[in-house]
Automatic annotation (TrEMBL):
Keywords: DNA-binding, Transcription, Transcription regulation
Source organism per UniProt: Paenibacillus agricola
InterPro entries for the chain: AraC-bd, Homeodomain-like_sf, HTH-like, HTH_AraC, HTH_AraC-typ_CS, Tscrpt_reg_AraC-type_HTH
Span of domain HTH araC/xylS-type: 192-290
Name this polypeptide is given: AraC family transcriptional regulator
Length: 299
């Protein structure tokens, strides 16, 4: 069973979607198409086979079919069978398939590591799973169909709604995995201490060598361990923590940008601004103005 991992730093491309109800004994036709397809069961059972692997899609279950792989029905469904279907595109460079071992490693990392909360720029979808909160996914799917049928002035409305639906399904898959693994201790409690130390010292000028010395690690070993467990290198994580600290000061204080840069361990204000723009796609000043507008609108 594969798990599909795809970057969502850009929205994925919506192609088509619908609500299928047979009304007669139905079997899926044999075909191979160049897009992804998601089938979400609503009533009775859809019998789908992909490259020799068979799935019974019951109500409340989701199946992800891959592009350029032959799929077909292998048995007739009841006339009452009903499901949502969705086709979308994702560039090859944005996606990869994980085997069971690789998928388990990814899922453990995200379900058990609170330091990654809110920082994951991709979705993780098993080939076949049962969303824990099916109604939430159903609401998003109906909203997607509404956007498509309403003929919005920009087609990107459907792309963003599609991506929101995939995020919701991914969240439910990760949550389901976390529940199945409840009681399993973190594999590396010492690494958790490293992450907490970085958070506490976010305002300091810190390096990988500083952290390795603090925790009596070999710097090269710590670098490899961090990359394996966190999915990013240590310097990227340090910058992320610093940027979170900077955003908080931008929102809650009137301090000059230069002083905020210093408070985040940056001696060079221009370099701070470059790093901030890389992470937020806007300057610190633009971020602060955006916050003030949001604050005023909420009053």
């Amino acid at each position: 069973m594969y798990v599909w991992k795809a970057s969502i730093e850009k929205p994925l491309e919506f192609i088509s979607a619908g609500h299928f109800t047979a009304g007669y004994p139905w079997i899926h036709s044999k075909r191979s198409i160049n897009s992804y397809e998601i089938i979400i069961g609503l009533r009775d059972i859809a019998y789908i086979e992909q490259e020799g692997e068979r799935f019974e899609v019951h109500a409340g279950q989701a199946l992800l079919l891959l592009p350029n792989r032959t799929h077909e029905g292998y048995a007739f469904s009841d006339p009452q069978v009903s499901f949502y279907w969705l086709h979308f595109q994702c560039p090859d460079e944005q996606a990869e398939l994980l085997d069971e071992k690789g998928a388990e490693s990814e899922l453990i990392r995200y379900s058990q590591n609170p330091f990654l909360e809110g920082s994951i720029p991709y979705v993780l979808l098993p080939a076949f799973f049962e969303p824990l909160e099916f109604d939430k996914a159903g609401i998003l799917f109906r909203q997607l169909l509404h956007i498509v049928e309403s003929r919005y002035y920009t087609r990107q409305g459907a792309d963003y709604m599609l991506t929101s639906l995939l995020i919701e399904l991914s969240q439910q898959a990760v949550t389901a995995f976390a529940k199945s693994q409840s009681g399993t201790a973190s594999k590396n409690q010492r690494l958790m201490s490293v992450l907490e130390w970085i958070r506490i010292h976010a305002a300091d000028k810190i390096s990988v060598d500083d952290i390795a010395l603090e925790f009596n690690y070999n710097a090269d070993y710590l670098t490899r361990l961090f990359k394996k467990e966190m999915g990013m290198n240590m310097q990227e994580y340090i910058q992320k923590v610093k940027m979170d600290h900077a955003k908080e000061e931008l929102c809650r204080t009137d301090l000059p940008i230069k002083e905020i840069a210093h408070n985040c361990g940056f001696e060079d204000e221009k370099y701070f601004m470059k790093v901030f723009r890389k992470h937020q796609q806007m300057t610190p000043t633009e971020f602060r103005r955006a916050f003030y507008r949001t604050h005023m609108n909420n009053r």
